Amino acid sequence: MEPPCLLWGRVCGKQHMNTGRNNRQKAMRKTKKPQRKSTTAPLCKNEKEIDAVKTLLEQITSEVQDRIVSPGTNAVKRFTAIPLLHKNPVSVTCDTGYIDFDSWAALPAVQMRDISPGFIRRICLTAKNITLEIVAERQQSEWEFTARVYDSGETSQEWILSAGGKKLLPKSLGFYHWTSQRTPSRLRIFNNDRHISFEKLKWA
Length: 204
Known about the structure:
Structural class: alpha+beta
Radius of gyration: 45 Å
Order of helices and strands: HHHEEEEEEEEEE
Helix content: 25-40%
Number of strands: 10
Largest sheet: 10 strands, mixed
Mean pLDDT: 77
């Protein structure tokens, strides 16, 4: 039989080992595994932020709607004339226009090659209530043209201008603008209802 002191030491040693094991197990149970962070963050943290976003979107929508402006009458007329750039109207009334004013009328005839850069010619062509006004300016190597159509004295933007093989749509404020090395001898304008051919222009 072992002495009481040795037996007590073994018992105490076992109890000490069991206590250490139990402590480690408790510590492991208390230690929680780290949770993975979500890669997708919520759009809004709470309902207040959601309401704030909705309010902001409503304000933006309201401002955009206020800035939308309906096209004016002249813009609509220009848009309706766009198809005529690619095809002629099917059925229209044909008229003939004549020279009403020519700034060169009182000048002696000159050769085109003798016209110096900066020289300007102004022409007004009329057909009943329609007037076509053209300003031609000689540049170094070409001519620069600006034109406008008037209907009873008011700017009209529903016409296609045909000059020198070009079909032109009026731009802002009803102005036509183009350049060419040659001067046009025949001018005509047309829309969906009417076609006007003007008399031949002489440039030399």
